[in-house]
Design goal:
The complex is a heterodimer of chains A (355) and B (377). Chain A is α/β, with parallel strands linked by helices. Chain A has a single domain, classed as 3-Layer(aba) Sandwich (Rossmann fold). Chain A has 14 helices and twelve strands. Chain A has helices at residues 8-30, 90-96, 118-137, 149-160, 183-188, 193-200, 205-213, 217-229, 235-248, 256-268, 271-274, 306-310, 332-335, 337-352, and strands at residues 42-48, 51-56, 69-72, 83-85, 88-89, 101-105, 142-147, 165-171, 277-279, 282-284, 293-298, 321-326. In chain A, the strands form three sheets. An eight-stranded mixed beta sheet of chain A has the order 1-2-6-3-7-8-11-12, with helices on both faces. Chain A has a two-stranded antiparallel sheet with strand order 4-5. With 377 residues, chain B is an all-alpha fold. Chain B is extended, with a radius of gyration of 34 Å. The chains are: A alpha/beta (355), B mainly alpha (377).
Chain lengths: 355, 377
Amino acid sequence: MQPFDMRPDAVMRELMSYGEKLSHGMKNLMEIGEISSGVTPKTVVHREDKLTLYRFNPSAERVQNKVPLLIVYALVNRPYMTDIQENRSTVRALMDAGQDVYLIDWGYPDRADRYLNLDDYINGYLDRCVDVMRERHRVDKINILGICQGGTFSLCYAALHPDKVRNLVTMVTPVDFQTPDNMLSHWVRQIDVDQVVDTLGNVPGEMLNWTFLNLKPYQLMGQKYLGLLDTLDDPEALKNFLRMEKWIFDSPDQAGEAFRQFIKDFYQRNSLLKGDLEIGGHPVRLKDVDMPVLNVFAEQDHLVPPDASRAMRGKVGTRDYTELSFPGGHIGIYVSGKAQKTVPPAIGKWLDARS
Amino acid sequence: MSTANDWMDGWMDAQRAYWQSWANLARRGTPAPEVPGNPFTDGLSQWWRTLAPMAPDAGKEVFDRLIQASQGYFSLAERFMAGADQADNGMKALDDWLDGMRGMWDDWSRAGSSFAPGMTGMPDFKGLTTFWDLPMDTWNRLAANVMPMPGDFTRAFHPDGANPAQEQINRFLSIPAVGYTRESQEQYQALARKQMDYLAATQAYQAAFGKLGATTTTAFQHALRERAREDKPIGSLRELYDLWVEMSEAAYAEFVMTNEYQTLYGRLVNTLLALKQQMARMVDQSLEAMNMPTHAEISTLQCRQQELRRENLRLNREIKEMRKQLDALVEQLATAPGHAPSPEPAKPTEAAPAPKPRARATKTTTSPTGATPRKSR
């Protein structure tokens, strides 16, 4: 048998169709206008340096949980991913599930922020945001939802300040940074991080982009764009694609000292799991995480493999530990239609039962 | 009766006219593009070159990437169509082409990858090699952002041991610096050594990707034969392209999880940063000589400023805590039995000095940022 069943005229039609789609796409592109993101109305409740703490404007009839929920996003990429468009908003879905949602936007660090370390971020900025919310709502403890690196931060915070955290939800959060399938971890083992930070100061966002794209270079830098062709004639779909692209390449530089500490302590030494992590001179022990924990992870996550998150099981001090596995990827868990329908409602229900 | 080739020639003319008409429509105010010699890949590039200046910023980069991805897709089409009139429906032509490509990758990895096929007169592989070279290409762009030299400058050098000049260069760089400018000579020698280290690391990395390209090409050919054997022929160009991506991604994923890759990658990053660090050192020396602030000095100031901010935050928090305690004490005193209320209760003001011993006592439980981790137990 032959490996091909392609008539030349069919191939020609395929190519012609390709050209036509490209042309229509170009027309749509010219008329696309501004790409907006971050759709849910919100109010600034606290500002400090580059950080902004937002509260998403709640509607009185929807909030049933009196304990506010703080979303802690990663330092890499921007937090508007959680509220990227009308029909793909984790924030909105959490609000629909009756939660009073706050979000930390870490901003874009510049060279003056180079000496911010993990202590500044976790025991400083994050702690002060938590205090602002506690004061505003007159509660001792709040609920925290940490995402990706923000989940790791939240876990450390909960271990250091258990008296301020009512419930902890972690999403696609690495705990074991050295699982055999963790590509990022494999790559950074021989990197001289001290030299990187001492030389560059802050670590450029482009460097992180390059690293993330190289996890699947042929799909993420090639095939994905051919897939775009099929939706180019739909202005709305094109807008959605461009919005996502904007987010992917919107990578803030990383404050040098925090980056140094994160790569060395977490990726190279795996200290959080081993139990010898210190932040600001204080030991961070997972067994001190004694509040209820919901650990949400994605089964096809190429950035944070599910085993990296599952490693939390049995390590945290709480007896109320729940796992929620989502059949999707690292980004799909916030934006896919299926995720929208299942993940935030499940989080809301879990929180309501414990708040 | 017309052959497939005649038909294709006719279509190519139509395609040429198609791209040309688009270019004509869009070229208002831009130089007229040449009629493309190769209607698929070249035509596409030319079409985009004409339209790109008019594209809005929001989507321009995306289209840049789409066009780049399309090059690979169209290359496949061209190769397939070149052999489409043959009895084996293009397999022989595609096979020959893939054999040629594998040979090229072998040469590349043997030669220390000092050339890029797309740039050195091997048009048959242009487009596809761009695709396989994606990781290296993006690295070069990144390096160019970090370094004051173009991303592909390494292609002009041959620092491997095979190059006889290398030994001479190393010998030259080892000559002890003497005389009045000794320190400066040493700095330049160090710079040259680090530059050679980076070049060697880059080329080792590229050579490894050459090897990977050859492996992927073989896997792709095997996959095509397997489809024939299983009687599951490929029905469209897109399917062919997707198979090719799948093969590339699988071979890549396996390679980058090896210890060999970990070492290559570590060396690539470390040598680049070592070179950059040496450059920064030399720039600082020049700035110092001109009595201007150096990067190192600014960095020291930033570090001290951050320490001061931490201290400031810690003190603010302590003052707040003490104020609360003081308020509680005043309230307690005021409500104590037999205590005559004072007309004006003492209230701490902003200027009230914090009691030093107290501040020292709390320091042991306070983090440098001013936050005090408190356990609920």
